Amino acid sequence: METMFDTAIIGGGPAGLSAALVLGRARKNVLVLDEGRPRNRVTGEIHGFLTRDGTRPAEFRRIAREQIAAYPSVRFMDDAAVEVTGTNGRFRIATAGGATIESKKLLFATGKKDLPLDIEGLSDIYGKSAFVCPYCDGWELRDKPLVFIAKGAGAMHFAKTITGWTSSRTLCTNGPDELTEEQREELKRHDVAVFDSPIRRIESVDGLVRQVVLEDGSAVPCAGIFFAPKLAAGSDLPRALGCDVTETGSVVVDGFGKTSVPGVYSAGDAATELYQAIMAASMGMLAAAGINGELLEEAWNGKG
Ligand SMILES: Cc1cc2nc3c(=O)[nH]c(=O)nc-3n(C[C@H](O)[C@H](O)[C@H](O)COP(=O)(O)OP(=O)(O)OC[C@H]3O[C@@H](n4cnc5c(N)ncnc54)[C@H](O)[C@@H]3O)c2cc1C
Prior knowledge:
By secondary structure, this protein is of the alpha/beta class. The protein has eight helices and 17 strands. The protein has two domains: 4-114 and 230-300, FAD/NAD(P)-binding domain, CATH 3.50.50.60; 122-227, 3-Layer(bba) Sandwich (FAD/NAD(P)-binding domain), CATH 3.50.50.60. The strands form four sheets. Strands 1, 2, 3, 4, 5, 6 and 17 form a seven-stranded mixed β-sheet that branches. The structure holds flavin-adenine dinucleotide (FAD). Flavin-adenine dinucleotide binds next to helix 1 and helix 8.
């Protein structure tokens, strides 16, 4: 590909697509490079995104791409970026498919990825009856008996939050609970049952959880599970290019998605720990405004 793009966007989820829409409308030449492995691909519907509540993730992307197609300066490539080199004004991206792309600015909208789930049976129900965020999927499980898998401070946070959706809550700590005596008392006062035996397996039928079976032989019947999976950066490319990245894998950015490397931006799950599609889209919009402002400034000063 010979074009020098104004911006290459790596990642075509809500963050990258939102940035592409804004940059397309700002008449910038943009390439969206996406390998198509969004974190929410396990789930059936996106919830809580105004005007898109209940939309399938793949349908969300289809509509976004269809609307962006109205702006001819945006191109899409279904491929993975495997190497990024260069500096502000001239970045070079090598793809798994053998293409080389050049761009003046870069936006990493590469999301986060789940590390392998380490409880037997959990991957069978992930996105169907086991979820990570009550704001996303609590409504569908309202008033049902729910298990949440957590320890320590995380368990206390989950216990309070899930109360908004159901009064039937069981905490499985999957080993030592890491709670203080005071916290155990607090959970008891609020009728939260606590099991600290390690989880042997989760039993389900067609993705719907039936019960959590513990190593001590007991079983906790439930209709849904919330848990906090371990996550990693969706891509190591921002770190390889020199961007500051937190211990938890988030690219460090300012309010407009600017990273510590000139000309490089990041948005969405890649650069936050507040995992919501509308938040990712909003960050993509802000990063696009930041990038466009930089490009206009450079052109104004004869450096573009
Ligand atoms: C089970 C589950 C349910 C959820 N439900 C909801 C919900 O109901 N409502 C809600 O608001 N949020 C929900 N979320 C969170 C939401 O999905 C994310 O916050 C949102 O998708 C983040 O958007 P993003 O664009 O930052 O990243 P993603 O949507 O993850 O997209 C990142 C894209 O970048 C691509 N990519 C990564 N590296 C490369 C590379 N090197 N080259 C090319 N492409 C690359 C990936 O393949 C992917 O397509 C849920 C999450 C999970 C896990």
